[in-house]
Design goal:
Chain lengths: 200, 200
């Protein structure tokens, strides 16, 4: 089963247990034998595989939930789902129902934003675990600003729920939570479930 | 007493009980009779007034604290100071000592950042009080992302401290806190205190 997750820049492909990422423009659009989800308007008429978007529903009152978030919600019955990529989406599922969710800028875009506000606020990103004692210099003050409010916000809405992280920054962020799991291929696990329960 | 707070774009002038804001390039640099603070490197050699930066100190271990934050900390003995402008700075003072602080992007820059991440995430800013129940559409999801983590972050570090808000978005943000005061001219109150205690 070949599964593809088309974004605005990249296509993530799951095939025979391996995940590869290519630029969307490098994709061979003559291919037919795959299941996909797509958020990229510019290619939607060129895709010849099977679009999973219309093959499933979730229990939600949220208007305009992106298909990628919907797919993840389909897979998790109870818990908080954090997809940390270009944007960070946080969704809450309880008893199979989507209770709502919020959108936060991606970690990388934050670093750029500080730099744009003032050249004095340009710092290097590193992946060390931040301590969150009250900052005593500019680097700490910015790292605190990027991570601490987000982490507190997620903690506030997740309470005792299990938190499922995925996306490029999911692994790093999951380190700040006790009740967290990072699942690299969560989107593909979820897509596979949709295929198995709704198509096969 | 004329007091001027020079930023990178604007100069805020306090004179005879009134605050006016002008573009830095509109300032008459031949003037001499004023006290000022300045974060704008490009004009620092042209200013003929009295620079308050070297006239006072605060008790802090923070390396590289901006003069505007330092001035505010000089004025508040106990409490959290939130200056919400192009950037949002949050500083904690206890018993006259600066315990540290963090820097967050300004509210307006957040709205722009979402729009840059995806045109689907472009929403209009409005000044209504946000509810923070779990969002059920894109606008709510973004507003929640902008306000909720920041407000939670400030609450976490402020505990039972009084919170003093200033800056362009200070009034709006102060609405989300019970123990908050908005003081529009906080920076000038602080500058006046420095003049009175260290110069006159």
């Amino acid at each position: 089963m070949k599964l593809i997750d088309f974004g605005n820049t990249n296509a993530k492909i799951y095939h025979e247990g391996k995940i590869t990422t290519i630029k969307v423009e490098e994709f061979d659009f003559s291919q037919k034998d795959f299941y996909y989800i797509n958020v990229n308007e510019s290619i939607k008429d060129k895709l010849k595989g099977i679009n999973l978007e219309d093959k499933f529903t979730i229990n939600s009152n949220y208007k305009g939930l992106g298909v990628d978030r919907k797919v993840l919600c389909y897979y998790i019955n109870d818990g908080v789902i954090v997809d940390a990529g270009t944007a960070i989406t946080v969704d809450v599922m309880r008893d199979g129902a989507h209770e709502g969710g919020f959108i936060y800028p991606g970690i990388a875009s934050f670093y750029n934003l500080y730099k744009d506000i003032s050249p004095l606020l340009k710092i290097q990103r590193d992946s060390s675990i931040k301590s969150f004692s009250l900052p005593q210099n500019t680097t700490q003050a910015i790292e605190f600003g990027i991570y601490y409010p987000l982490i507190n916000g997620i903690k506030e809405i997740s309470k005792d729920y299990k938190i499922y992280f995925c996306g490029g920054d999911g692994k790093e962020l999951s380190n700040y939570f006790e009740n967290a799991t990072y699942i690299e291929d969560l989107i593909f696990k979820a897509m596979r479930k949709i295929v198995e329960e709704n198509i096969c």
